[in-house]
Amino acid sequence: MDTQSLLLERIFLTVFPLVAIVTVGFYYARRYKIDMTTANQVNIDVFVPALIFSVLSAESFDLVQFQDLAICAAIVVIGSGILLFPACKLLGVHPKTFIPPIMFSNSGNLGIPLMVLAFGEDALSAAVVLFLVENVLHFTVGIYILDHKTRLINLLKMPMIAATILGLIWSGFDLSVPQAAATCIDMLGQIAIPLMLFALGVRMTSVDLKNWRIGTYSAVLCPASGILLALACQHFMQLSSEQFAYLVVFGALPPAVLNYMIAERYNQEPEQVASIVLIGNIGSLLFLPLTLAFVL
């Protein structure tokens, strides 16, 4: 099997489990009426912070080496929201519902393994930096978009922000986590993504045709805006060929499942956000192979 076939197979094997778990949640909720409110709260306060700390503390990397890439990643994230803000009126969707999923991509559970497969182990540090940029912006700018009254001091009290800061400290000072504690944290973090996906499937039971249309539009606009901004950044920043390839793939990633979790918490039309996230990840089965064909 040639390299391109292996990449296509890996992309399918990465995205298919996400869709499959969502489907399980969907059909389970159709048969049994369940309330995921408590599970979602525990996930966002315990399991997701454990996942963040586990990723950041496990890899030691030089942020200075990737400072230009980090700047470009921030431009891609924030610029996507600015670029597509006018589309909200055309699509008849509230900006608070549409813009965050467009801005904040699936750079963790999809982006990291995808980049390592496509570019090798040398891409791991860059992939973690991109995840870090997206994650920090998500829980600062992203939360502010949903709630303008949010104060910075309150953000610092959020478990996910605390986990990010601690993870950076552990990585920056090259500290080690005791094996017993590391195993516990890793196990808690491993719960986060499957539970997010299952909860997304439960939410999809209330999705209607209108929401599916919004999801379809976003599935195209999300990677298109990200790639366009990555190309614009390269014109001015002149990244190395490797870092430019990482940035393009980062720009093409679909919306993060976490967008749904946060929309649920802030009661910001989670049904529509669920459609944007789900269809965006399905659409990545088409857009990511095309993107990899462009950069490889």
Care to give the gist of this entry?
With 296 residues, the protein is mainly α. The protein has 14 helices and no strands. It has a single domain (3-295), classed as Up-down Bundle (Na+/H+ antiporter like fold).
Number of helical stretches of at least 4 residues: 14
Shape: globular
What value does the average pLDDT take?
Answer: 86
Query: Which stretches are low in confidence, meaning pLDDT under 50 for 5 or more residues running?
Result: none
**What is the level-2 CATH architecture name?**
Up-down Bundle
Structural class: mainly alpha
Distance between the termini: 17 Å
Overall strand count: 0
Number of domains: 1
CATH fold description: Na+/H+ antiporter like fold
The helical percent reads over 70%
**CATH class division:** Mainly Alpha
**Largest pleated sheet:** none
Q: Bin the strand percentage.
A: under 5%
Give the helices and strands as they follow along the chain.
Answer: HHHHHHHHHHHHHH
Rg estimate, integer Å:
18 Å
Keywords:
296 residues; mainly alpha; Na+/H+ antiporter like fold; 14 helices; globular
Structural summary, described in words:
Its main location: membrane. It comes from Neptuniibacter pectenicola. It is found in: Cell membrane. The chain crosses the membrane at residues 12-30, 42-58, 64-86, 98-120, 126-146, 153-173, 179-202, 214-237, 243-262, 274-295. Belongs to the auxin efflux carrier (TC 2.A.69) family. The protein is mainly α and 296 residues long. It has one domain (3-295): Na+/H+ antiporter like fold (Up-down Bundle), CATH 1.20.1530.20. 79% of the residues lie in helices and 0% in strands. It has 14 helices and no strands. It has helices at residues 3-31, 37-58, 67-84, 87-91, 95-103, 111-119, 124-146, 152-156, 159-172, 179-203, 209-237, 241-252, 258-266, 270-295. The protein is globular, with a radius of gyration of 18 Å. The mean pLDDT is 86.
